[in-house]
Amino acid sequence: MAEPTPTTIRHLGPDDVQRCKAIRLACLADAPYAFGSTFEGESAEPDSWWVTRLTDCHWIVAEQSGEDLGVAMMMRQGLPPSFQPHQDAASWFPAQPDYLWIRAVWIRPEHRGRGIVDQLCGHLAERAAQAGERVVILGVRQGNDRARRAYERMGFAEVGTFQPVASAVHLTNSLMALPLG
Questions:
Q1: Band of the pLDDT at 94, cuts 50, 70, 90?
Q2: Which of 39, 55, 72, 106 is the most exposed place for a label (fewest CB within 10 A)?
Q3: Which comes out higher in pLDDT, residue 96 or 126?
Q4: Is it the case that residue 165 has pLDDT exceeding 70?
Q5: Model pTM score
Q6: Is 149 domain-assigned?
Q7: Is residue 2 part of a domain?
Q8: Tell me, what DSSP letter sits at residue 77?
């Protein structure tokens, strides 16, 4: 990994529709294989849809000198119906109806390998730990080895697999968990 890029982490709220939309569409244009949505679908959504997403989820961006370098989001959701846990998965997270998921993680290609993903995910994991959560989870497409290595470096471990429910990409995901605290 290159020298870490000093960044500022900013929360996006309902007034940040255009900013969120711009970086989210950039990530869908760059890496459509990695997300459960499409550029075409999200670019056609009205601003009210974006406001709801910004209200219902915790969106953050890493910025430097006014440029958004990366984005991540955290939301509360249950496990997918297709989740197939590994044998030791129960030791990683408690049985509960829903969990905090880290989602929509993306770094601009020219800024990858500089620790920005660690800053974004670390910020969200810290927020989850402060809220009393014991674990935070995320999904990563099988075959997205660079992302998997980054998450493993941060302490995430694969606990099972699942098929996305409403995905534009029909690839298996690995469910990865990070114990907190």
A1: low
A2: 55
A3: 126
A4: no
A5: 0.90
A6: yes
A7: no
A8: E
Three-state DSSP at 99 gives: strand
What value does the mean pLDDT of the chain take?
A: 90
CA distance 22 to 20: 5
Structure tokens at 80: 């997918």
Residues 176, 162, 37, 57: is their CA dihedral positive or negative?
negative
Between 91 and 43, name the one with better pLDDT: 43
Domain count, the chain: 1
Are the C-beta atoms of 135 and 92 separated by less than 8 Å?
A: yes
Residue 1 lies in a domain: no
> Is residue 128 in a domain?
yes
CB 126 within 8 A of CB 74: no
- What is the C-alpha to C-alpha distance for residues 180 and 25, in angstroms, rounded to an integer? 31
Q: Does residue 22 carry a pLDDT above 90?
A: yes
Apex 81 CA angle, 40 and 118, nearest 5: 65
Residue 63 near residue 70 (C-beta atoms within 8 A): no
Helix (H) or strand (E) holding 39: helix 39-43
- Give the largest Cα separation in the chain, rounded: 46
Q: Which domain holds residue 60?
A: 8-179
The amino acid that residue 126 corresponds to is: E
Give the rounded percent of residues in the chain with a pLDDT score beyond 70.
91
* Amino acid of residue 171: L
Residue 102 in 3-state DSSP?
A: strand
